[in-house]
Amino acid sequence: MTRKTVRIAMNGVTGRMGYRQHLVRSLLALREQGGLDLGDGRVLWPRPLLVGRREHALRAIAQRHGLDPVADVSTDVDAVLADESVDIYFDAQITAAREGALKKAIAAGKHIYTEKPTATGLDAALELARQANAAGVRHGVVQDKLFLPGLLKLKRLVDGGFFGRILSVRGEFGYWVFEGDWQDAQRPSWNYRAEDGGGIVTDMFPHWEYVLHELFGPVRSVQAQSTTHIPTRWDERGKPYDATAEDAAYGIFRLEGGAIAQINSSWAVRVHRDELVEFQVDGTEGSAVAGLRGCRVQHRSATPKPVWNPDLPATESFRGQWQEVPDNEEFDNGFKTQWELFLRHVALGEPWRWDLLAGARGVQLAELGLRSSAEGRRLDVPELTL
Q1: How far is it, in rounded angstroms, from Cα 187 to Cα 126?
Q2: Which among 13, 145, 206, 278 is most buried, taking Cβ atoms within 10 Å?
């Protein structure tokens, strides 16, 4: 077995997602399992190059995980992109910094893998896709929720025709993010500043676009209401600041084929559900409720006949009337799974559809969602082409 090293510049690994999901649970996990077997006698060995502004933090991460604190660390993005040994540029920076870095990486001829949103506006997101295609580099956008066990089970039900004609999709996402005054916030302060690319619409609507698109069909219209429930928060230094970005959004999406999706997204909601995100799908033949890992179903033949009677307490357990969908396979970390697919795409040219154009669809939906909220009306979602 021949080992082939792939050098991956990772910009943004001092952040929560870049560090935990992309570095530790994806690329370092691949190294722990001996690399990625390409099936042709070669094993792909990822070698991360940690990029960022805080050299001491990068060196600490490198030392913690057995990387070279000198050779595998850099604060000079331009030098990294000029390095011919670097094959892939990965970006998990704050949204406002991403577009410029991706353009530089494309111009340097690096393959691109990036967190979403890919840019702060649709025109810029489409231009990134055009530039990447013109440069002949391979490009991908993280769409991790497609690889969650719960949604993989849901996709299995859709593909198997379990639902019949799908009528509606209802999603609930969110949790209480502490304001930062008397308990530390679980999310960085830039998430709540519009000038830094923050806001739950920009963050979550791209997720809902690819989930709806891949499982149920393209989004054809959007009507949204966004709001800032918590106007003042405290940053990482304990200083109060004005939240200029929305922390909750309530969206209704009409899908191709006629199904209606309604998804609530909030960082100002206390959780009273089994998982932090749940989707209920109702169809003529059956229904399902899927979360991050679990999925329960109720078929038409096993649907009970509730009777509305507010004068008496409910005597039946409605949750107990649903059946758990079995795993039937072992599910790996979703971020790691998509990294493996992207690396195979780069190394072998295997099919890949989660590219910068797919990422632009997410930016488009977020942009239209914010506009819908501002104008108080439903907006069509045009199909994107390059």
Answers
A1: 28
A2: 206
Asked if the model's pLDDT at residue 6 lies above 90, the reply is yes
Strands 232-234 and 219-227: unpaired
User: How many Cα neighbours within 13 Å face the side chain of 258?
Assistant: 4
CB-based contacts of 77-80 (< 8 A; 24+ apart in sequence): 77/11, 77/51, 77/101, 77/104, 78/104, 80/9, 80/49, 80/51
Q: In the numeric block, which tokens belong to residue 147?
A: 């690889």
How much is the pLDDT for 95? 87
Q: For CA atoms 358, 360, 363, 365, give the dihedral sign.
A: negative
C-alpha 207/C-alpha 215 separation (Å) is 12
Contact 225, 246 (CB under 8 A): no
- Per-residue model confidence as pLDDT tens digits over 108-130: 999 999 999 999 999 999 999 99
User: What is the structure's pLDDT at 85?
Assistant: 97
The whole-angstrom separation of Cα 188 and Cα 16 is 9
Q: Is the pTM of the predicted complex or chain greater than 0.90? A: yes
Whose CA is closest to 13, among 31, 28, 32?
A: 28
R_g of the chain, CA atoms, integer Å: 22
Report percent pLDDT > 90 for the chain. Answer: 95
